[in-house]
Specification:
171 residues, mainly beta, Jelly Rolls, seven-stranded antiparallel β-sheet, four-stranded antiparallel β-sheet, 1 helix, 15 strands, disordered N terminus
């Protein structure tokens, strides 16, 4: 009869079986993800408002870094530059204050090219939330940024819970 260890982080596993390598990725030789670059992840938020001019693609600024496990996000330029090639999950969101019945667009750009976007139309309320996400293969040194575009002057609201930009290396 096999006995099971119910206290394992990943759930039930047979006693005596090897524990999974928590905090390590394939190919890593260290638990210290900062040193080997295996666990790349960051999250930054927007805490202040930002103007977006009519029909002008505007880079969204996320100046407050919540974490950056591999020192790849620059809050001064709101740019993520991975140190390691791989597949990354990228998420960006904004909260827009504008007149009703206006459409908005949010884009994730890699090296100046749109790789993911979302369009939303405001309704009778004046706050509209937009988010966009993608899983994409990035090369070391690629520049990842978020841009917004609106057909009339609008304000991006600084909202810690909703306006954020984040990425995690997943493969």
């Amino acid at each position: 009869m096999t006995r099971y260890d119910h206290n394992d982080w990943y759930g039930v596993r047979p006693l005596g079986s090897p524990r999974p390598l928590v905090g390590k990725s394939r190919g890593c030789k260290s638990d210290k993800s900062e040193r080997c670059g295996c666990n790349s992840a960051f999250r930054a938020i927007k805490t202040v408002g930002q103007q977006v001019l009519q029909n002008v693609p505007t880079q969204v600024l996320y100046p407050v870094e919540q974490y950056d496990t591999n020192n790849e996000y620059d809050p001064a330029t709101s740019t993520f530059i991975p140190k390691q090639s791989g597949v990354y999950s990228i998420i960006a969101s904004i909260l827009v204050s504008s007149s009703p019945d206006v459409s908005f667009r949010i884009n994730i750009r890699v090296n100046g090219n749109d790789v993911a976007s979302d369009n939303e139309n405001s309704t009778i309320t004046q706050l509209t939330g937009l988010s966009v996400s993608t899983n994409i293969r990035l090369q070391a040194g690629d520049r990842v940024q978020v841009f917004a575009e609106v057909p009339q002057f609008s304000i991006l609201v600084g909202d810690e819970a909703f306006s954020h930009f984040e990425a995690t290396r997943i493969g």
